[in-house]
């Protein structure tokens, strides 16, 4: 064959600068594209062999990647179907260039390149991101004359005959001066490790096979043991703690999706540990930024999702608009809910033990996804200060009789810091009220979501009001004080209580004389803002506390009877400080003085 030269028939002189600039922002993915092509070519050959259309020896099919620093080349060699000169013209010149042409035409009218990137079959041409010349030396499985194609990234190419004895394709990249970083073995092995770790055909680099061609998500769950799942988790996250449990995804309608999602253990002071689920398309790694594919609240999960229905060259806006991606998203939510329900039904004790971690997902899910609440309401658990867990129905049943207020609302009490709120919890216990523990950063939002879902139910922190007002049953005790005396008490406490509001109440005589409470509404709003990461609008405002004075306590009567004004003031201060102390709010110089006074008085 005479060397054939040609011009690729598109008008634009040089398309590559544009492709280089816009098609892929990440130059390293040239290797992903070329290795994927080599895998495709090898799998096509295996398929032909299995259909009886190729009866030669398959032989060793390992794909080899090598770097020659001196020659400044990177070579990707496969033993796949190969191409003859006609194939090259058809698949490399025409098809890819028609893709390029289409790309350019769209690019002209669409300044937002994000919208069009990733929709064109231009994988092979990503080679020109790093190479100034690309050479293809290939021999078809049909045992035809081997061919060599070379192109310098302009629209000119050349095809000649070449010597090649074995079947398959070598892609030789003559790396450009600005891309010499890719002539480094570490760099190449890092890229392969990232993108090719689970490719289905063996890939060899530097004398070693770098991939696991049969990862567990490609197998049937019935062929796998718990140990297999745990071992795969270690392979993905060598430094991770053992996962709590996992879900094997296997969907073939209305889209194709396989994968394994793991529930990790979550530490109490949880941090949103995103970017852990890895997205693959036919075992080719695409990204670990799964924002649009995995519902937000499940981005704390770990594992792998593989879907051929997700385009390889993904861009954010493209993913968001993709109908399949939306379906995948809701499918994953459903699967996760089903799995949690299954564990809850089959192993309630185990479920309760895992609740501290699992609860974070569930709560986040409820806060961020209405549909998830409907799926999860059966297994949402509430934990009380005795460490017992209840479902929403069970809890309502438990507290309904004793904790319904005069407006017919069931009031669920909670503490976010069991130690600090001990005085209030003790007071609630005296009434045989139950107190829940709500100590995760998400709880303010979680409680809000529950209030909007549950009928006639409200949540109040145990220190948000006086014990009688927390669950106001309308049974007010008579006050032992006259109106004048009440006024006097109020005045005395106003002197010591700064900006706080004095709230005089007729509580049982054995309740504390003073307690400092933080009204629920304002406090919860602040808590919610804090976790949402919005600037704390109210942060600058001192949060008004209420000072509840128990008019029926004997010390208040004593205070009124104290004739010496100084002694009266001192007792008022002491009582107020005791209230602060019980809330853990007495600190610094005030605390020191309190201790000194107390010591002096002993
Ligand atoms: N190593 C190879 N062996 C045999 N044929 C190949 C090889 N590499 C590329 N080809 C042929 O060239 C065509 C174009 O490759 P290119 O990567 O540009 O697009 P694609 O693989 O079809 O799509 P994608 O954009 O998903 O990569 C392939 O479809 C294939 O027919």
Automatic annotation (TrEMBL):
Domain of life of the organism encoding this protein: Bacteria
Pfam families in UniProt: HATPase_c_3, HSP90
Key words of the record: ATP-binding, Chaperone, Nucleotide-binding
Family: Belongs to the heat shock protein 90 family.
Protein name: Chaperone protein HtpG
Source species: Emticicia aquatica
Biological classification of the source: Bacteria, Pseudomonadati, Bacteroidota, Cytophagia, Cytophagales
């Amino acid at each position: 064959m005479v060397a054939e030269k040609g011009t690729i028939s598109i008008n634009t002189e040089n398309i590559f600068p544009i492709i280089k600039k816009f098609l892929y922002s990440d130059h390293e993915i040239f290797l992903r594209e070329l290795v994927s092509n080599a895998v495709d070519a090898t799998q096509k050959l295996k398929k032909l062999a299995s259909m009886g259309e190729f009866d030669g020896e398959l032989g060793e099919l390992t794909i080899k990647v090598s770097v020659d620093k001196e020659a400044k080349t990177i070579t990707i060699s496969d033993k796949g179907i190969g191409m003859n000169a006609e194939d090259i013209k058809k698949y490399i010149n025409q098809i890819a260039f028609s893709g390029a042409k289409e790309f350019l035409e769209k690019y002209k009218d669409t300044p937002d390149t994000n919208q069009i990137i990733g929709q064109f079959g231009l994988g092979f041409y990503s080679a020109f991101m790093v190479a100034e010349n690309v050479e293809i030396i290939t021999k078809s499985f049909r045992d035809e004359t081997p061919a060599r194609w070379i192109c310098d990234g302009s629209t000119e190419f050349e095809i000649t005959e070449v010597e090649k004895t074995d079947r398959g394709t070598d892609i030789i990249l003559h790396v450009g001066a600005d891309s010499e970083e890719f002539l480094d073995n570490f760099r190449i092995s890092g890229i392969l490790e990232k993108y090719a770790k689970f490719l289905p055909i063996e890939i060899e680099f530097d004398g070693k096979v770098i991939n696991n061609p049969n990862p567990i998500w490609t197998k049937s769950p019935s062929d796998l043991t718990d140990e297999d799942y745990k071992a795969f988790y270690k392979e993905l996250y060598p430094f991770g703690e053992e996962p709590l449990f996992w879900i094997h995804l296997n969907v073939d309608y209305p889209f194709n999706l396989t994968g394994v999602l793991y529930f990790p253990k979550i530490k109490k002071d949880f941090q949103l540990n995103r970017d852990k689920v890895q997205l693959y398309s036919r075992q080719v790694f695409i990204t670990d930024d799964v924002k649009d594919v995995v519902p937000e609240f499940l981005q704390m999960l770990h594992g792998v999702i593989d879907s051929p229905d997700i385009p390889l060259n993904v861009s954010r806006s493209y993913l968001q608009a993709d109908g399949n991606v939306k379906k995948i998203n809701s499918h994953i939510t459903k699967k996760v809910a089903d799995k949690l329900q299954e564990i809850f039904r089959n192993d309630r004790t185990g479920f309760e033990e895992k609740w501290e971690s699992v609860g974070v997902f569930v709560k986040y899910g409820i806060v961020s996804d209405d549909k998830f609440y409907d799926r999860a309401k059966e297994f949402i658990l509430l934990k009380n200060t005795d460490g017992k867990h209840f479902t929403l129905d069970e809890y309502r049943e438990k507290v309904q009789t004793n904790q319904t207020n005069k407006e017919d609302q069931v009031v669920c009490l909670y503490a976010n810091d069991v130690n600090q709120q001990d005085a209030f919890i003790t007071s609630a216990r005296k009434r045989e009220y139950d107190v829940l523990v709500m100590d995760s950063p998400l709880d303010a939002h979680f409680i809000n979501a529950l209030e909007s879902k549950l009928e006639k139910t409200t949540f109040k922190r145990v220190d948000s009001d006086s014990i009688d007002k927390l669950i106001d049953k309308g049974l007010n005790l008579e006050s032992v004080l006259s109106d004048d005396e009440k006024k006097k008490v109020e005045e005395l406490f106003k002197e010591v209580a700064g900006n706080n509001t004095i709230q005089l109440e007729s509580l049982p005589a054995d309740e504390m004389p003073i307690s400092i409470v933080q009204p629920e509404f304002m406090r919860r709003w602040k808590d919610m803002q804090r976790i949402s990461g919005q600037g704390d609008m109210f942060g600058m405002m001192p949060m008004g506390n209420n000072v509840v004075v128990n008019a029926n306590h004997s010390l208040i009567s004593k205070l009124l009877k104290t004739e010496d004004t100084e002694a009266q003031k001192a007792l008022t201060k002491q009582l107020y400080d005791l209230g602060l102390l019980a809330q853990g709010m007495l600190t610094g110089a005030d605390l020191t003085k309190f201790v000194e006074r107390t010591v002096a008085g002993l």
